[in-house]
Amino acid sequence: MSQLITSAAPHVHSGDSVQKNMLLVILALLPAFVVSMIAFGWSALITTCISIATCVLTEWCITKFMLKQQPSLLDLSAVLTGLLLAFNLPSNLPWWMVVLGSVFAIGIGKMVFGGLGQNVFNPALVGRVFLLISFPAAMTTWPVAKGFATRYLDAETAATPLSYMKNAIADHQQFELDSLLDSFLSCVPEHIMGGSLGEISALALLIGGLFLICMRVISWHIPVAILATIAAFTGILSACGIGSGPLTHLLTGGVMLGAIFMATDYVTSPMTAWGKIIYGIGIGIIVVVIRTWGSYPEGMSFAILIMNGCVPLLNRIAPKRFGEVAKK
Amino acid sequence: MKNTFCIGGVHPHDNKSYSAHKAIVEAPLPKQAVFLLSQHIGAPAQPVVAVGDKVKVGSLLAKAGGFVSAPVHSSVSGTVAKIDTVLDGQGQPAPAIYVDVEGDEWLPEINRSQTLVHECTLEPKQIIQKIQDAGIVGLGGACFPTHVKLMPPPGKKAEVLIVNGVECEPYLTNDHQLMLEHGEEIIVGIRLVMKALNVTRAIIGIEANKPDAIRHMRNLAAKVLGIEVRALKVKYPQGGEKQLIDACIGRQVPSGALPIETGAVVDNIATLYAIYEAVQKNKPLISRVMTITGKHVTKPGNYLVRFGTPASQLVEMVGGMPADTGEVIAGGPMMGRSMSNIDTMPANKRMSALLFMPQSECYRPQPSPCIRCAKCVDACPMGLEPYLLSRLAKGEEWEEMEAHRVMDCIDCGSCVFTCPAHRPLLDGIRAGKAKVGAMIRERQAAKQ
Predict the structure, then answer these.
(1) In whole angstroms, what is the distance from residue A169 CA to residue A293 CA?
(2) Cβ contact (<8 Å) for A323 and B257?
(3) Maximum distance among all alpha carbons in chain A?
(4) pLDDT tens digits for B288-299?
(5) Is A117's CB within 8 Å of B377's CB?
(6) Of A150, A323, A284, A275, nearest to B409 (Cα)?
(7) Are A319 and B321 an interchain contact pair (Cβ–Cβ within 8 Å)?
(8) Tens digits of residue pLDDT in B218-236
(9) What's the pLDDT score for residue B95?
């Protein structure tokens, strides 16, 4: 008789893996990427490739030469970080800035904490905010969407709805999108609003988000809490005559990308249902405050990073325990 | 109406098709039967026979070692060969009585006929006494002596009997087949327990993946007042006592309390069949239906096995161990124990199944770092945080583990099943339970 294996129960597994989850998130980002290619042409692909390649290489080098461990890139987490970072950048950002941002995202955002699963802040957002603070001009100049006619360098640039929104607030006026439907669908270049590479189509991002919820990769709590909070808060503000209405807020800037893909990052979001809801509400409030009274037109990155810092505290909220109801 | 438990749960592939609907076949008698003295939760049984004694099928071999204990009866006739130890499934020596089999002679008071005996004129106390004397324990897996459950502590009153026909473990079909073949006996068993508990209501919980059993039991239950069959949504671990009570009557057993706190007493299908046989037919618990199965087993099925039969003989009976077997599990794949020794391990009250897992399914990928995806938190049916408990165990922070309710863990394995990083979360949690359990007992001892 051959030697029998003995192991502790359970003896079967769901077949789920870290790699599978990362792959599903990458798949969910594809519709938004396709829209980005339609809007910004090759420049979207170039920026994304540079970002992913640098993230993967940085992680490999740090693991191999500094930590002296066997690099494990198969979990695809570095690919995802690179992809998400690219989605948060203007598609015409100079290549060396993309490289710098990617190195910072993986090196400072992830590896200094101990690698996968250990970081407190979303690595892609760490990279993005580093670039935003270091190169404010380049990071807030967005190319006009001209499809494949968009040039990677020296592209024609224009303001985004968010900067109109900001100016309107300064002038005590209210800005609304001309056509909410166009900005929602966002697949004809002429109608696409300016913005970062991956944030321009709310529809494509929502499709990806629904896919992730259906595949049980993410739960609904965080995106719904964020979007509902933004809608409620801006609804109240616009009723008081401050800033734009809820739909304009929800469909512009990084709200959809942030709510569905950035804030739901496993490592940097809370573990329990109520923790997730409070985290989402926090992000929603901070975004609206920054957009309305802050000096930046957009606040999604800052909002998520600030709430990332609260996650250890939010994780002290216990899940709904069995038998709690009956407890005297 | 709600039809499952509230918190957590997972959906493992049920793999029941290999042995489902296979008629119960009686396993051949062994040459020598080996009876473990500890086949139940509680004190081991104490031998009452000596080497050389002649025994019959049903003879008492060992008496209960206390109130929370159960006697052991012989399932064969023959001569007591020795009282020694036997290597159990894990290769550990366990005290046991060896009986050399001679013929198949039963005690005269056991009614071996197939006729159904409906009537019972016994008083509740007498029913419970018979159950206790027959050595009946919970056959769902825990093997807790049944008579203890039927005697609620003072001040507590049972309101409803919940019958566990869930069989949520993948591969297992023994309870399913028992319901199909012996539904009438089970109904009589339910009536006996209802009488013993003095309750007027019983709910049979069966998962929706056994529609024929649900139909059959509904037809039978329709003739009896107070018995109801509940079709439950398929979800593991619904067969857990606490989960089943929640699913059937919507009450949750408070943390640290006994199930009777909710007014419910839960008994397994196989236990109720054993109760019928003990009370109506004077037959002590000497055998059980086991599922012997696996993806590559030649003759998977449901077998009526007499206790004491060595597992190796059961392996032979189903056509030998498949060549690619990597792991042999006593019980289901979620909570069963993998065995290193099947040569001498005897069938016993605890062994609900023998499962042969192909080698290709036995190896796990190396654990990778926790990505804090919270899937273990979502899966835990007790509302615990397995990732956190596992981390606390690593730091030996036992007090913290207690505060995070480690003692509520029911060992169902849903967290490990679901973990995408393949982390052995339960290892630390089990260590924590042992440690915290000891701490609690110490505190109680100090108080007294």
Answers:
(1) 9
(2) yes
(3) 85
(4) 999 999 999 999
(5) no
(6) A323
(7) no
(8) 999 998 889 999 999 999 9
(9) 95
One domain, residues B221 and B178: yes
Q: How far is Cα of residue A73 from the mean position of the Cα atoms in its chain?
A: 21
Residue of B nearest to A114 (CA): B369
Q: pLDDT digits over B5-28, tens only?
A: 999 999 999 999 999 999 999 999
Select the residue of B255, B325, B371 nearest A323 (Cβ to Cβ): B255
- Which residues in chain A are contacts of B362 at CB distance < 8 A? 5, 7, 11
Q: Is the pLDDT of residue A176 over 50?
A: yes
- DSSP single-letter state for residue B301: E
Do B152 and B271 lie in one domain? The reply is yes
| Interatomic CA distance for residues B361 and B338, integer angstroms | 13
Give residue B395's domain range.
Answer: 375-447
Choosing among A2, A5, A11, A320, which should be mutated to test the B contact, i.e. which has the most B CBs within 10 A? A11
Main-chain phi, psi angles of A220, to 5 degrees: -75, -20
Helix crossing, A161-170 with A273-293: angle to 10°? 60
Q: How many CB pairs under 8 A join A and B?
A: 167
Give Cα A1 distance to the centre of its chain.
55
The last residue of a domain, from among B264, B281, B298: B281
Q: What is the DSSP letter of A262?
A: I
pTM: predicted TM-score of the whole model, two decimal places: 0.91
Residue with tokens 């079909």: B173
- Whether A11 sits inside 8 A of B421 (CB atoms) is no
